[in-house]
Design a protein that fits this description.
binds pyridoxal-5'-phosphate, PyrdxlP-dep_Trfase_major, globular, 438 residues, pyridoxal phosphate, 7-stranded mixed sheet, 16 strands, alpha/beta, PyrdxlP-dep_Trfase_small, Aspartate Aminotransferase, domain 2, Aspartate Aminotransferase, domain 1, 14 helices
Length: 438
């Protein structure tokens, strides 16, 4: 009996949902990525709480994917649900602020080291807005990203280097509006010299960077890299945007607080709203003043940034409750402990069978990769990708009630994840390694 047979036999109700959904949605899902699972059809969710969800087939799962970080707060955290429900009952969209606005901006400022905040519906929107602001104040055309970084479906950020070193749209950047070599420069992570060459052209409005790459496995910054990025951005007049969307896993103030980074602007999203759409972007006072000075506020037709539902009362109620009562400093301590246990468990199986893989932990998030040493660049990490192997391991896990993220070998811990949840996966992971190499 293969893992595919096991999946098919266990999930008839999901199959029925899928057959119905397929008539009106490509691949039977409301958003394309939901079809990227290892099984022959997606698992349809019945309900979720904390670190677990139950599918329509009645199977309980430990959720190590947590909505690809969108639910790092755990599913339906009580404080967030209460605050969001109460706000929903009082109205959610006014194009006017509520009392939560100031409180949320204060919380964001105290955690992420910049004092001026705006809100959006997603991290993608936040990145788009900051890129516009950076172009507005610098009057420069280009942005710089790192190879194999991901910053959302932002046209010009979803770029890579081809084998000749030319900037091209990443595979999957569907219908990119202009050739990306006109909008974007790309360098390898941790390559200070390449970064300096790019910034010295003085054409780069913004460096958009994750503190560690997290969308091609985890690639950590080498000592001094962020200091060099900061220094070079200042020297060449480039706005430094730090995208903490995933690296928020490092602690209550993300890697910005952990490493004492000094961005001009910061992006957050995914789990901050407690499970509902919410994004945020922060700026230094200096950058925010430059933006303000560059705009004609008398005659402002603000169309390039913002949106009808951005910063709505529901998102702000969700962020306030989630950051003050769910993703607290104490919760991070527990999440990081669970992640350390997971990392040790996975490492133990790798060591026991001398498999040439390695594990990298980033706070509450940890990920194995199919190479013997930690990658230094996105390119090195990408070269170790093995889609079939990943699909096998994910399907093996899913058949044992354990959900991994389709695009990552990643396990993410929520405040609700227990040591027993972690062990359920590390035991299954060892079993999978035995099935492959035992
Ligand atoms: N930034 C980073 C670092 C991300 O990993 C992602 C999504 O994975 C985004 C931004 C975009 O987030 P969203 O799809 O919620 O807009």
């Amino acid at each position: 009996e293969t893992e595919l047979d096991v999946f098919r036999a266990a999930r008839p109700a999901s199959h029925a949902e899928w057959e119905r959904a397929e008539r009106h949605m490509p691949d039977g899902v409301p958003m394309l990525w939901m079809a990227k699972w290892p099984g022959p059809w997606p698992v349809y969710v019945e309900s979720a709480s904390g670190a677990h969800f139950t599918c329509v087939d009645g199977i309980d799962h430990v959720d190590l994917c947590l909505g690809d970080t969108g639910a790092m707060c755990g599913h339906a955290p009580a404080a967030s649900v209460a605050a969001i429900s109460a706000q929903l009952a009082r109205g959610s969209t006014f194009m006017l602020p509520t009392e939560d606005a100031a409180a949320v901006a204060e919380i964001m400022s105290s955690r992420f080291r910049v004092p001026v905040w705006q809100f959006s519906l997603s991290a993608t929107d936040a990145n788009r807005s900051l890129i516009r602001y950076a172009r507005q104040v610098t009057r420069r055309p280009r942005i710089l990203v790192h190879d194999y970084s991901y910053h959302g479906t932002v046209d010009e950020a979803y770029a890579t280097l081809d084998e000749h070193g030319n900037v091209v749209a990443r595979r999957g950047n569907i219908g990119a509006p202009v050739p990306l070599d006109q909008t974007t420069s790309v360098v390898q992570f941790n390559d200070v010299d390449a970064l300096e060459r790019a910034l010295a052209t003085r054409e780069i409005a913004a460096v958009l960077i994750e503190p560690a790459l997290t969308n091609i496995g985890i690639v950590l910054p080498e000592p001094g890299y962020h200091e060099a990025v900061r220094e070079l951005c200042s020297r060449y007049g480039t706005i430094l945007i730090i995208d903490e969307t995933h690296t928020f896993s490092a602690g209550p103030g993300g890697m910005i607080a952990e490493l004492g980074l000094e961005p001009d602007a910061v992006v957050l999203g995914k789990s901050i709203g407690g499970g509902i759409p919410a994004g945020a972007y922060g700026m230094t006072r200096e950058f925010a003043d430059r933006v303000r000075d560059s705009l004609d506020l008398e005659d402002i037709d603000v169309g390039g940034v913002g949106g009808t539902l951005a910063g709505n009362a529901l998102s702000l109620a969700g962020i306030r409750a989630t950051l003050s009562e769910v993703l607290t400093p104490a919760a991070f301590t527990g999440m990081i402990d669970r992640s350390t246990e997971w990392t040790a468990g996975v490492q133990a199986a790798i060591d026991e069978f001398e498999v040439p893989w390695q594990v990298t932990q980033l706070g509450a998030r940890s990920e194995y990769s199919f190479r013997a040493t930690a990658p230094r660049t996105g390119r090195e990490a990408a070269d170790a990708d093995d889609f079939e192997l990943q699909q096998y391991l994910h399907l093996h896990a899913l058949n044992r009630g354990l959900l991994m993220t389709p695009f990552h070998n990643m396990a993410l811990m929520s405040p609700a994840t227990t040591a027993a949840d972690v062990e359920r996966h590390t035991v299954a992971f060892r079993e999978a390694v035995v099935s492959l190499y035992g």
